[in-house]
Amino acid sequence: MQYKISVLIFLKDPSGRFLMLQRAKSPNKGLWSPIGGKLEMPKGESPFECAIREAKEETGIDLTEKDLHLFCMAAEKAYEGKTHWLMFLFDCSKALESLPADFDEGNFSFFSREEIDQLAIPETDRDGLWDIYDKYHDRFVALKVDCQPGQPLDFQLEELIPADKITPAANAKG
């Protein structure tokens, strides 16, 4: 199986509700998830560039790197028994002022964090993604997840950087 590299972006409205997309395509057709997409690897696109592009394409919001906090890198092994995913998860500090128009990849709605637990969401999201967001969205964590079909999901923490050790890109010296 080959790796696919993707991003997920956690966008919120001014009241703190999360933007969710009910997917019209695989993977996760019919299920609700944060927006995102695959890196354009032939172009050498970075995860930040991909998150900015996908947010613009899917919602119309203009973001910069300063609007995004990379809080998780997750390697999913054998997702649905079909592929491996290397995912970069971003929390966005810029609020989305209105609900985007539906498009060919699905329809949108805003949900509170509590409402998300009641939605039809992918198994990996229910068993880990939202717990990861709740625990780590203000810091950085690297995880690997064994998603072998017929087996319970196995999440393993590979690295955790506490919030007080995070240096925002705007203040980084290089």
Which stretches are poorly predicted, pLDDT < 50 over at least 5 residues? Answer: 170-174
Overall number of strands: 9
Strand-residue proportion: 35-45%
Q: Going across the major beta sheet, what is the strand order?
A: 4-1-6-5-8-9
CATH class: Alpha Beta
Name of the CATH architecture: Alpha-Beta Complex
- What sort of overall outline do the alpha carbons produce when their principal axes are compared? globular
| CA(first)-CA(last) distance | 37 Å
Round the mean pLDDT to the nearest integer and report it: 91
* Count of structural domains: 1
- Major sheet characteristics: 6 strands, mixed
User: What's the helix-strand series?
Assistant: EEEEHEEEHHEE
For the CA atoms, what is the radius of gyration? 16 Å
CATH superfamily: Nucleoside Triphosphate Pyrophosphohydrolase
- Assembly state of the chains shown: single chain
> The CATH topology, please?
Nucleoside Triphosphate Pyrophosphohydrolase
Short description:
GO terms for molecular function: hydrolase activity. InterPro entries: NUDIX_hydrolase-like_dom_sf (IPR015797), NUDIX_hydrolase_dom (IPR000086). The chain is of the alpha+beta class and 174 residues long.
Please name the defining characteristics of this protein.
174 residues; alpha+beta; Nucleoside Triphosphate Pyrophosphohydrolase; 9 strands; globular; disordered C terminus; hydrolase activity; NUDIX hydrolase
Explained architecture:
Its cofactor is Mg(2+). Residues 2-133 form the Nudix hydrolase domain. Keywords: Hydrolase. GO terms for molecular function: hydrolase activity. The protein is α+β, with helices and mostly antiparallel strands and 174 residues long. The chain contains three helices and nine strands. The protein has a single domain, classed as Alpha-Beta Complex (Nucleoside Triphosphate Pyrophosphohydrolase). It has helices at 47-59, 113-116, 123-136; strands at 3-10, 18-23, 32-33, 35-38, 68-79, 83-92, 106-111, 140-146, 154-161. The strands form two sheets. It has a six-stranded mixed β-sheet, with helices on both faces. It is globular, with a radius of gyration of 16 Å. The chain starts with a strand and ends in a 13-residue tail after the last strand.
